[in-house]
Write a structure and sequence with these properties.
Strand order of the largest sheet: 1-3-2-4-5
Number of domains: 1
Structural class: alpha+beta
Strand content: 5-15%
CATH topology: Glutaredoxin
Oligomer: single chain
Pfam families: Thioredoxin_4
Order of helices and strands: HHEEHEHHHHHEEH
Protein name: Thioredoxin domain-containing protein
Largest sheet: 5 strands, mixed
Shape: globular
InterPro entries: Thioredoxin-like_fold, Thioredoxin-like_sf, Thioredoxin_domain
Distance between the termini: 64 Å
Number of helices: 9
Keywords: Disulfide bond, Oxidoreductase, Redox-active center, Signal
GO molecular function: oxidoreductase activity
CATH class: Alpha Beta
CATH architecture: 3-Layer(aba) Sandwich
Helix content: 55-70%
Length: about 220
């Protein structure tokens, strides 16, 4: 027979689990559906800055904005499908890349991408892909992975002097911080987070992303 004291403890434990489950559900909801307090005009200005890197034609009817972290495993996982969709809807979709750093080496990784872009814009996307490919080597480390990033730059044939100067530069730090603040203002809490023609993707999946693109193309 269960004693009254044990019954009370059991009820308290179940109550705590219920609260935890509720918090997890709410957290997932916030992760899946960014909530912005900005006006439509303010949101538009925060989504795409004049200097935000883009892939695809400027006059494409669909703009996909991705807040990403080079150290994010989910960003790495979805990258091949994201590029496949850009190829499938070539000329119809433009990708805008925004940083949203969440890990110890996120800033250095962003600096590596920016350093590559300074030596040719097409190298931006090559370095992004290369860092995702190499992510198991440098990701989830609490110590600086600067030497690895310099090695990746050397692998790509980049001039290492400018790369090293860019990695920890104030310009990169300010750029990444601006992107992060824009993301937070738009309700971004995790990566990757996508917006399709200004509307947040409510479910993180390749299928949902493609459906949103198709809906934008055929309103």
């Amino acid at each position: 027979m269960t004693s009254p004291r044990n019954t009370v403890l059991l009820l308290l434990a179940l109550g705590s689990l219920a609260v935890l489950a509720t918090l997890l559900v709410l957290g997932a909801a916030n992760r899946e559906a960014p909530q912005s307090r900005l006006t439509p005009v303010q949101a538009s200005e925060r989504l795409v800055r004049t200097d935000s890197p883009t892939l695809g034609p400027a006059d494409a009817p669909v703009t996909v904005v991705e807040f990403f972290d080079p150290e994010c495993e989910s960003c790495r996982a979805i990258e091949p499908d994201l590029m496949r969709l850009l190829s499938k809807y070539q000329g119809q979709v433009r990708l805008v890349a925004r940083y949203f750093p969440l890990h110890a080496n996120s800033l250095l990784a962003a600096g590596t991408i920016e350093a590559a872009a300074q030596q040719g814009e097409e190298k931006r996307w090559r370095m992004r892909e290369y860092l995702f490919d190499k992510q198991p080597e440098w990701g989830e480390q609490q110590t600086s992975q600067k030497d690895k990033f310099l090695g990746y730059a050397q692998d790509m044939g980049l001039d290492l002097g400018p790369v090293e100067a860019t990695l920890g530069s104030t310009a990169v730090r300010d750029l990444v911080e601006r992107d992060r603040q824009d993301g937070e203002a738009l309700g971004v809490t995790g990566t990757p987070t996508f917006f399709v023609n200004g509307q947040p993707l409510t479910q993180l999946s390749v299928t949902a992303l493609e459906e949103a693109i198709q809906e934008a193309l055929n309103p």
